[in-house]
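User: I'm curious whether this sequence folds into something compact or stays loose and floppy. Could you predict its structure so I can see for myself?
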Amino acid sequence: MFRSLRNGILIWFLSLFVIVLIPQFEANEMVKEPIQVEVILQRAYLDGEISEEKVIEKIWSMEHFWVKYEQWELVDTFDKGLIFKKQMDDISPLLKANGYFGITDDGTLTIFNGRPHQTNIIQSFFQLNIEKLESRKHLELKEGIPIKTKDRYVDVLETFKPYYKPIKMKQ
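Assistant: Here's the prediction. I'll summarize afterward.
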């Protein structure tokens, strides 16, 4: 319900944006002079990373413009532009290039930028029960497990789920 309400409001703002910024457009009309609009494309990856790309679009036809971005969700508008977001079914380029699973000193399964080191943490997941963890797996985490692919990312998380250690709350 909230998503449809939000989308309705965004469409209303977009309509206002279109009326103010590009009054020369009719629904399917081609124009003599294109308008320029800043478009911000946000890509949200499985690992939580969000990348942004800014492009300047020359719009000759609103119909063609919307077709180009039909796979994207309009999330906001601003003075002379639009912000679109897309959920990516993949891990971020950062993880593919330099991401490693590892373990922190307190036993938390963590992703590092490069080989495991306490100062280059990208994302932490959950604490592992080190006593139940096989020494081979513990050593792998200490040295770092390269991620490279979405499948590897999912496999490593699934492999270490059984070693999850609930955090005890102080009373």
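Summary: The CA atoms of residues 75 and 96 lie 27 Å apart. Confidence is low (pLDDT under 50) at residues 16-27.
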